[in-house]
Amino acid sequence: MDSLDFSPAARWIWGQDDAVSQNAWRYFRRDFSVAHDIKKATLLITADSRYECTVNGHFMGRGPARSFPFSYSYDVYDLTPTLIPGETNNLAVLANYLGDHTMMYIRGRAGYLCEIVLEDAHGNVSRCPSNAQWKTAPCLAFNPRAPRIAIQLDFEEQYDAQLELSGWDARSYDASNWLNAIRSARWVANPGFSLSGAQSRF
C-alpha cells in the first residue's frame, strides 16, 4: 500500500434532515465487502467537529485531534484484525457538529470524511470512500439544545439512553430505512482549509 492519503473519490458528507444548526449528532453506516485474501485494511477518518467509530461492533477510537482549519487532522486506523475475510463488514460512526467556536475549536461546516483502503495478498488495492452511498440518521439520544459548559468549552453531553437506536453500530443492524448521506457544504472549495498531519492510531 503506497499511500495513506484520501483519494479524490472521498467526499465530505452529512445528513439532509438536521433540525438544528448547533450541537448536531448523526449516525453513519456503510457495509463493505472484504476479500478472502485480505492483507491490509486501513481507515482514514475525520469529522467536523468530532467522531467515534466502530467496525463490526468493535470500538476503534474517537477524534480528530485538535487542529487548525489550514491543517485539519485526520486519523489512521489499522482495521485488519477486526475484519472478517470473505464477508460483508460494517463501519459505523457517530459524528457531532458543534456549530460554534470554543477555545479549542474554530467553527467550520458540518461534515464527515473517511476512506477504507483494502489491499489483498496480490497487491490489489480497492477503496471505499465516504459518499452518497452511506446511510445516515440523526442521533436523538443527545440533547442538541444542551447549554454550553462555559464560553471556553463546548456543550454539555446530555444523553438519554431510551432514545438510542439499539444496536445501531452492530454488523447485523438493518439501516435500510435510513436516508442516504448528501455532499456536505464542508466540501465547498475553501482556500484556507487543507487536510494534513494524520494521527496514526495503529
- Morphology call: globular
Poorly predicted parts: none
Strand order of the largest sheet: 5-4-7-2-10-11
Q: Which percent range describes the beta-strand content?
A: 35-45%
Helix content: under 10%
Contiguous helical run count: 0
* Pattern of helices and strands: EEEEEEEEEEEEE
Biggest sheet descriptor = 6 strands, antiparallel
3D structure, described in words:
There is one protein chain. 0% of the residues lie in helices and 37% in strands. The chain has no helices and 13 strands. A six-stranded antiparallel beta sheet has the order 5-4-7-2-10-11, with no helix packed on it. A five-stranded mixed beta sheet has the order 9-8-3-6-13, with no helix packed on it. Strands 1-12 form a two-stranded antiparallel ribbon. It is globular, with a radius of gyration of 17 Å. The mean pLDDT is 91.
In short:
This protein has no helices and 13 strands. The chain is mainly β and 202 residues long. A hairpin with a 2-residue loop joins β4 and β5.
